[in-house]
Amino acid sequence: MKEIKINTDFIKLDSFLKWVGAVSLGSEAKMLIQEGHVKVNGEIETRRGKKLKSGDTIDFDGEIYSIL
Description:
About 25% of the residues lie in helices and about 30% in strands. The chain is of the alpha+beta class. It has a single domain (about 1-65), classed as RNA-binding S4 domain (Structural Genomics Hypothetical 15.5 Kd Protein In mrcA-pckA Intergenic Region, Chain A). It is globular. This is S4 domain-containing protein YaaA.
């Protein structure tokens, strides 16, 4: 599990995937999220604007990220 510290109250899911380097383009993040390839807190999330906050976990492409 990779622990990721954010400096704001929240970060949107598509921005998070770009920020941690899981995807290179926002359009790529949008497509993968809408196709159901990303889980937030164990549930498939299809909203790219989902606000992530401290304590959330993101499961994508075999990696699990935890937001601090």
